[in-house]
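Dear colleague,

Following up on Tuesday's group meeting, I ran the structure prediction for the two-component complex that the binding team flagged. I've pasted the input sequences exactly as they went in, so you can double-check that nothing got truncated or mislabelled along the way. The structure tokens for the whole assembly follow below. Feel free to forward this to whoever is handling the docking comparison.

Inputs:
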Amino acid sequence: MPGILRNYKAGSIIYFVGDIGDQIYILKSGAVDLVYHSIETGEEVRETLKNGEFFGVKSALARRPREETAVVVKDSQVLVLTTEEFEKLITKNIKIITNFLRVFSNQLRRVGKLVHSFLDHSSGGDNETELFNIGEYYLKNHKYKQAKYVYETYLKHYPNGSYAAKARDRLEAVMDAMDGKSISYTDISKESPLENNQSEKNQEDKSQGIGTVGGKKTGEKSSSKKVADIDIDTKFYDAVSLFSQEKYEEAYRLFKALHSSSSLNEKAQEYIPKIEFEMGRCLLAMKKYKEAILVFTNLIKRFPKDENLKDALFNIGIAYKKLGDTEKAASFFNKVLKMLPESPIDRRAKKELASLKK
Amino acid sequence: MFSKFGVTYQPGDIIFCEYEPGNEFYLLQEGRVRVTKIVGDMEKTLDILQPGDIFGEMAILENQPRSATAVAIDKVKVLKFNKENFNLLLQANPQMAVKLLKIFSNRIYDAKRRLMILTLPDVESKVCDVFLMLAENQGISPKTTEPVTFNSTVEEIAHWCGEKENKVKEVLRNFANAGKIQIFEDRIVVKNLYEMYRIVKNKRKKQSNQE
């Protein structure tokens, strides 16, 4: 066996609490006590070692201060190993390793339980809720790939959970977004490959730079909210450009996904009426007139002061006209004309009214 | 070994996520893995793992769900183990077992340190002790009288205290009003850490006298 055999007189100290050292000890003969103060009670605890027992292992392996004072009670013989010698010794003896793993994991479990007992009263939701919320976080920040994983994981473990229906909805929106995204990227990259790739890269850099908990490392602190802002901005215009390329279905899917993620994100709230307006336009272009009317009507109800209000009314008129309901179409074109302020849409409404009368 | 226990992930793939139930642990063979946690409204990077690192090891201990998210940065290859095939792994790779022992040793220290904060009697001394712990983690002496900057938010400090955020906010505001700390959007500067050290020490002394 490696190491040095050392003799200690009764009453001497092998190491003090707080000392730092890389040596690991085995009691060969005699008597050694480990003395420390319990964290919970503050009381002094005295543990008597058995012959053949290791001590000083955890502090040496973790390179942390000793947690206890090792007091020699009777004249003793102790085998002293360096951490390296200890490692060599145990790699040849799986039994010692398993034993230590058991002892350490028991300790860790015990301390962990104590920590939890202090936290219980102040902890947030249950695990199920928290898991769902992780998905919400990713969706809110338009990290669709990650959101997809979390919602799927949620449904795997809680198929009948309280958020199962919501999770399925979200999953559908996320899938649509991922479809829309991959299409929009290939399409847009044809037009401006440089710009698009760069914005993706920047995002990745930023998310890597976000700081750390515990202050162990200092990283660049960038606000994830800002990243989300840039993100929705670029995605919104990705969708608008899809629309301009007459890819209405793809544009609609991307708008729909943006809609569900924006409703969760405070900063993106201002986009909601814009997104709803664009969704209506897509539906109109896709000749889904009834659905388009529904979307524009909801928009007007929810945001009666929105800048696109007159355009929304006009579009409802167009949808009714296409459906063959000239009466309703005329009433909406008239609403546009009566409403202030005047806008370029008024002329188009007049034209439409005239064509209806023919 | 890889054919039996190996799993491959693409960049951006989640390996497991916070609050997901699971009882496997992983040995990273190729590529890097980012460990993150969502604190408040931010996803924070806790660690970036390199080939040879072990993660998810707490799962062999308890049935608690994952405490953090692991995301592949590069194309990642891992070996995936559970309690049942753990012994196989130990025999094939005792060096990894030593690593695991070291991780557990450090974890025990961290958990005990955290427990010390939680056993303090009031929010004020808990907040002080959190600063002391954060300083220790950065290798800064708690007895320094120089200003120390912490890249921490109120949410993080509340997390370590095990207290509600508004309570911790109030304490931090009082400290700021008394000129003991400066609060910025992304950091907190403690003017005199030694003063906090003394507050905590006195509280602990009083506690052990009572018992």
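The two ends of chain B are 55 Å apart (CA to CA).

Cheers,
M.
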